[in-house]
Design goal:
Number of domains of chain D: 2
Strand content of chain B: 15-25%
Distance between the termini of chain D: 68 Å
Subcellular location (chain D): Membrane
CATH topology of the largest domain in chain B: Rossmann fold
Largest interface: A-D, 72 and 71 residues
Largest sheet of chain D: 2 strands, antiparallel
Number of helices of chain B: 11
Number of strands of chain D: 2
Chains: A mainly alpha (about 200), B alpha/beta (about 270), C alpha/beta (about 280), D mainly alpha (about 260)
Shape of chain B: globular
Oligomer: heterotetramer
Membrane topology (chain D): Multi-pass membrane protein
InterPro entries (chain D): ABC/ECF_trnsptr_transmembrane (IPR003339), ECF_transporter_component (IPR051611)
Order of helices and strands of chain B: EEEHEEHEHHHEHEHEEHHHH
Protein name (chain D): Energy-coupling factor transporter transmembrane protein
Helix content of chain B: 40-55%
Pfam families (chain D): CbiQ
Amino acid sequence: MKAKNINDQDSRFSTWKIHLTVATTTLIPAAVGINYIAKALAEGLKLPLWLGSLGTFLASMLAGPTAGAISGFINNVIYGLTLSPVSTVYAITSIGIGIAVGILFHRGWFQNAKRVFVSAIIIALVSTIISTPLNVIFWGGQTGVAWGDAIFATMIGNHINIWLASFTDEFVLDLLDKFAVAYLAFLIYRQLPQRMINYFKDNQ
Amino acid sequence: MSTIQISNLHYQYPTSDFQLAIDQLSIADSLVAIVGQNGAGKSTLFKLLTGLVQPQKGAVKINQRNLATLTPEERLRTIGIVFQDPSSQLFNPTVEKEVAWSLSQLESDAELVQATVKKALASVGLTKLKDQNPFDLSLPEKKLLTIATVLAINPQIYLFDEPMMSLDWPSQRLVTDLMQYLAQTGHQVIAITHDMDWAAATFSKMVALAAGNVVFEGTPTNFFSCPEPVKKAGLLPPRIMTIAQEVFNDHHVYLTPQDYAEKYPAHQ
Amino acid sequence: MANYQKLSINQLSFTYQHDRVPVLNDLTVSVPLDHIIGIIGNHHAGKTTLCRVLAGIVPHIIAGNLVGSCQLGDQSPVQDWPAYNQQTGFVLQDPHSQLSGLADTVADEIAFDLLNHGVEETAIQQRVAAVAAQLQLTAQLQQSPDSLSGGQLQRLAIATAIVTRPTVLILDDPTSEMDPQGRSDFFNWLKTVTHTTIVIVSNEIDELCEIADELWVLEKGHLVSHGTPLQVMNHLSPKWQVATPTIYQLASLMNWPLATKPTLFPVNFNQLRRCVNVNHSN
Amino acid sequence: MDIRHNRLQKVARLHWYNVVDPVTKLLLALFLTLLSFQLTDLYFEAGLVLISLILLLLSRLSVATLHAVSFSLFLIATMILIQGLFNSQNAHPLVTILSITFYQEGVLYALTMGARILIIIFSIGFFMNTTTVSENATYLESVGMPYNQVYLLMSVCYILPQIQQNLKKIQFAEKARGINPQKTLIQKLRSLLPIMIPLIIKTFDQSINRSITLQLRGFNSPERTIAAPMYHYFKTKLSHYFLVLMIIILIGCKLWQIIKNFL
């Protein structure tokens, strides 16, 4: 058997081991699945939104920023490997979103509809700040959404700096998307049975 | 009372070999059980009876009208559907709103909605829980809630998929009584089930399916008096018949222990 | 105090964390090991929670306040859970979530526990094949678990629980998705299992009275009755709203009591046969 | 008979790419991507696109890859349009169509970017089309990745069909309750709730139950038999070291260029 040299390599991985409970380990794939379905439903309804971070939001709210960040990360890696390879690099954005939601939720910024409004803006800002450089590196500043790119093209055509144009393109889209996702997550979370919330809270 | 008429019905799933094929079936009784093994075609027939899935050939007609031609409103008023798994259709914040949501699609008078919801909740015994989150209820309570959402609309026909599953004894009795009440007040109740004891005791007509075909239609007494279709459908007779056969070597048809007690003097 | 040949529960109460009302309230009962125990009762009775206590799920995985003791032979699910868990098989109400979620085939799914416990590959092969044969899953071994019907999935869930050869088997409503024939096969199989303490929650009161050595009746967290099916069924309070087996209904309608105990009506085939042989000549 | 792995069948279907381990394939994809970002010459880029395309064609083409390619080709086209017309460096006209002038610099820039995207898609496509989920899972476990992390990465692929099954059931049940198609954006979003709420609660409920059974079934047991890799791979360590070295060199070059710009 190969048991020997397997043990040798164990130490290499333990250095970047993140402590995960079994509850979080099963929550994360579920959250990724929800991201995937939400995105598919948004496309099916021809919404001008992605909604692909709904599961990440809920994972952060239920099990904290780490769970959300990992959900977001794995989501983009899997999505990138199976459907759209370039979206892999946006894993960094998803990590940012997961952390932002986790912290905001913990601080009580998902308690009522008014506060969710503020949270959505902050999360959209975080997402845009991380995504813009990636858009510039990989897509020359475009986002791939037609009407966002129309804004981008107009601004570039008027000799506005590519970074500012790209930032605007991304932020407009992100703001709309994160508003929709934040309110959906807020409404859904309110309706989760208490025992479910408690289970993930106790098993963090 | 309505009549459901099925003629030359054919349905096949795109991804499997299974076919449902029914030449002629007419359902005019008020309490009808559709029975069969897993995979006999019960769920497929259920889907076709909802009117939400169209057959490749033939049609399901209710009082001479093709189900496929009903508008959504007409469909809701004609057929009420109670699914096997109640958790797939609940989404409102409270039990009361859950029931009101269904009705408010057809009825805009808020006062009427409220009064009807109250009545529907009372008839399934959920009045006390009206302000609870539906997802905090127990499984039998969730199932009663989905029944209440249909009761509020008061359709002509009630379609149940495995109604006894995941219910405890008191709620089984409650639902059975409710079905009998509905049948007495001019509704038609159709239930898909593999609970033979319950089917024998409750229904006046049975339709047995096997491998996508109807192998029997008639009264429970007739069904269980001919062992051939029962066996073909992979079903067991009511337990009281097994007891009579195994303990007393008595091969008469009995639907319930009460039935046995009544016939006992004559059979001695 | 400790009796090594018994399953004994002593003044057991349990309250889930974040909850004020106890779900189990002052349960005391004991039965010899290797018996089949049927648990009956209506919703909110505490059946699932009692199963969770017996499997150690509460308080080890789901938090809560447990008072009193629970002892199975020389082990306790409360005190030495990891060792106890190795000897326990548990089947959940929902067979879908019983699965590991990372197996291509039914065979891999059954092998999951054995791999986790470091069992050797040849032994795994043998045990998987044997368990599959017992539960009539041999033809499905190479199929994906996703392709199974509800009844087959429940049998797979049971297979994953018994492949580790547990000394305690806890089954929470394991037959809900089986058809009549499948259910009857399952209870017949259960009768053949030996050297195992079996705790089963089920609504199938007729079957329970055939196979159980002991019935426990729970009502709103209280153990309101326990004993042999014969004793329990003959001393039900209408307040508990518990179903009775067909044989009992028949015998009480016909007034056919047991010959040896004229105040009691039979609850299963053997008892009915005996009382009929004595009371009647046909 | 071997009931858990039908190895005999697999040997019969063994392809050349089964000899390359999954990590080497991923590192190769990363290497080609970084190389494409290092190069600026369009001919070299075209060469790399060709190499990755050949890799892909020598394996199996999947529908998913074709989708990804067609989606990106559309984006690349819009990129050529926007950059060709508006890029700030534009100076030399390339072609004029109906009095709209495309500039050399912008088109070149867009083509380079497009080539990089195609390289990423082709090389990742090669990885995806030549490995299976269970091969990756067993390989990662066999090289020492803790099982709970393998589980985390891989169970996503198994959970999706299950969620989709639940989704179908829920959509049918909600259709039966009479949900009509909605018109405005807010109405459309609201119409998602009747589907998403039961779906999410069901999915999370199954996660809770699964986390309980995994613990009961000895998921975290230290005695776990570590899975043996499915195939005999060719010189795994050598190829890993070589590719990692090349990747480090490429990153080093890039960093040196950036630093040099500042000096």
